[in-house]
Structure formats: structure tokens, C-alpha cells
Amino acid sequence: PLIAVEQAQPLSQLVSRPAPTFREARRINSAPTATTVMIVEGICCPSEVPIIDSILNKLPGVESVATNVMAKTTTVQHDPTMATPADLVEALNAASLGAHLKRGAGGEKPRSKRPSMLLVVCGILWMVSLGSLGSPEEHSHWRADLKHVAILAAAIGLPRIARKALGALRNSVLDINCLMILAAIGAMAIGDYTEGGAVVFLFGLSEWLEDVATARAR
Fold first, then answer.
1. Could you tell me the CA-to-CA distances from 51 to 108, 133, 216 in Å, in that order?
2. Torsion of CA 63, 68, 69, 71, to 10 degrees
């Protein structure tokens, strides 16, 4: 009788064969895949995209992450048995990105078009501090002191920016929020309090205008 003998593969090929990645293993095991779409209100510019990628790609079961900056949405392909949609939202919100699951058509709650009270108070204090500007000979003592009101404006607006900046630094990313903090602190350090208050208020104002424009685009 004839005996078929299978030719053994060289040992070098067996040793050098790379271990299957998670994506390859999932295809082999036919694990379920889910698509989760989230609204990420904290996206203000493309600099947030690396932060989102870094946060989500660390989670087990995540296959791909795609972020639309203009629509402020993030779409994730993932294994729901390893990372649930709630896990994705929680991971992003730990970095103060304001994420929530996207509802169906017509299911999104309309957001208020009015700016937050903190932004309004910050703007009022900054405009009061503008009274210190002008020719030195025109200044009375109390008008010169108005520049210190800008410190209060910055103190009101900076915590929100600082929370997002901290989330970026935790993921080894230097984003626009970090730069705004550096600019505001630098202006305050050289005694230009009105300029520091302007950085904080105008940055917050630009984010609010962007939110309004994005909501209309949706």
C-alpha cells in the first residue's frame, strides 16, 4: 500500500510566523462586531482627533475609530462583548470630551442656542476691564485698577479649558486647550491682565459659535 507522507515545514518558518492580531483573531473566531456612533461635544478642532484615537484604541475589542470634526461625531467598530457603548462614552468623558450616544433621526435633544452663564459673566468682566485702556494721562486711579477685573474673567473661564487640557496631557497630546492656557498665563505673568482675559473669553466665545453652527449643520 502507498503511504502519503506530508512534508514538514522548516522550523524557521514556524518560528518566524507572527502571532495573529486581534482583528485577525476576531475574523477567525467570527466574533460579533458592533458599530457605535457618538456625539462628542468637546471636539473644537482637529487637534482633538489624536486624543480620541488614543483613548479608544486602548480599549479591548476596538477595531477602528473614525472621527468627523465638522459633525462632532465618532464612529467606532468594536466587539460589544469586550467594550460596550457605555464603556466608549465613559472613556471619552474621563477626558472631559462631552460624549454621548447618537440617537436616531429626530431623537437628538435640541441644545440651547444661548451661551452659558459662565461665558456671559466672563465676557462682562472682560469688557469692564477694557475701561483701563487708553492714554495714561486720561486715567484716574480707579480706572487703572479696572485691569485687575480681567483676572476674575480668566478665573471663571479657565477651569473648563483646564479640564480638557488635562485630558489631552494624560494621553500625551498637546492640543489647543493647552496652548490657550499657556497664552493666558503668559499674558497674566507679564501684567497684561486684559489681554489674558481676552484670550479666555474669545476662545470660549469661538467654541460656542462653533457649537451653534454645528447644531444647525446637523
1. 25, 39, 25
2. -140
Give 3's pLDDT tier (boundaries 50, 70, 90).
Answer: very low
CA 62 to chain centre: 19
Q: What is the model's pLDDT at position 10?
A: 52
- Asked whether 131 and 113 are in contact (CB, 8 A), the reply is no
d(CA 64, CA 56): 9
Packing angle, helices 117-129 and 193-217, rounded to 10: 140
- The model scores a pTM over 0.85: no
* Phi (first) and psi of residue 38, to 5 degrees: -120, 145
Supply 125's cell numbers.
Answer: 468682566
Q: Is the dihedral of CA 103, 106, 107, 108 positive or negative?
A: positive
pLDDT, tens only, 97-141: 889 998 764 445 555 678 889 999 999 999 999 988 765 555 566
Burial of residue 5, with CB atoms counted within 10 A of its CB: 0-12 exposed, 13-18 middle, 19 or more buried: exposed
* Residue 12: burial class (beta carbons within 10 Å; 0-12, 13-18, 19+): exposed
Q: Which residues of 65-89 are buried (b: 16+ CB within 10 A; e: fewer)?
A: bebebeebbbebebbeeebbbebbb
Measuring CA to CA, which residue among 176, 164, 172 is closest to residue 99?
164
